[in-house]
Amino acid sequence: MVDSISSKPVSGRDLQLVPVARAAPAAKAADQDGVAAQQLKLSAIAFGFDEKPPVDLERVSRIRNAIRTGTFPIYPATIADRLIALKLEWNPHDAK
Q1: CA 66/CA 60 separation, integer angstroms
Q2: What is the pTM of this model?
Q3: Gap between the Cα atoms of 64 and 58, Å rounded
Q4: How distant, in Å, are the alpha carbons of 55, 62, 66 from that of 58?
Q5: Can you tell me the distance from the alpha carbon of 30 to that of 80, in angstroms, rounded to the nearest whole number?
Q6: CB 31: neighbour CB atoms within 10 A?
């Protein structure tokens, strides 16, 4: 049987005392400076990504040329395997 949702009196039996662990001491200023420096480095790296394209334009050019000339290798079995792996969210490099 499920109790209905309403207010009901609380008895002493319903209350339980549970031990509480002490909180960790506050981080020292030196630790905070280290974290701030790390965040600053990561921000600088993130802003650097927009300066150059994240692709190898020379490789893209070679692939386009191979497709245009009909020399780009296509392996249907490999394509099918990778599509299935993508659907199943499986990475062969993680399966060791």
Answers
A1: 10
A2: 0.34
A3: 10
A4: 9, 6, 12
A5: 53
A6: 10
Q: How far is the C-alpha of 56 from the C-alpha of 61, rounded, in Å?
A: 9
Q: Quickly list H helices, 1-96.
A: 29-48, 57-69, 76-87
Report the amino acid identity of residue 10. Answer: V
Residue with tokens 């009901």: 8
* CA 56 centroid distance within chain: 24
DSSP tag of 6? S
Alpha carbon distances (Å) from 25 to 8, 19, 20, 63, 84: 40, 18, 15, 57, 49
One digit per residue, pLDDT tens: the chain, 96 residues? Answer: 555 666 666 666 666 667 777 777 765 655 667 788 888 888 877 776 667 667 888 999 999 999 999 999 989 999 999 899 888 887 666 665
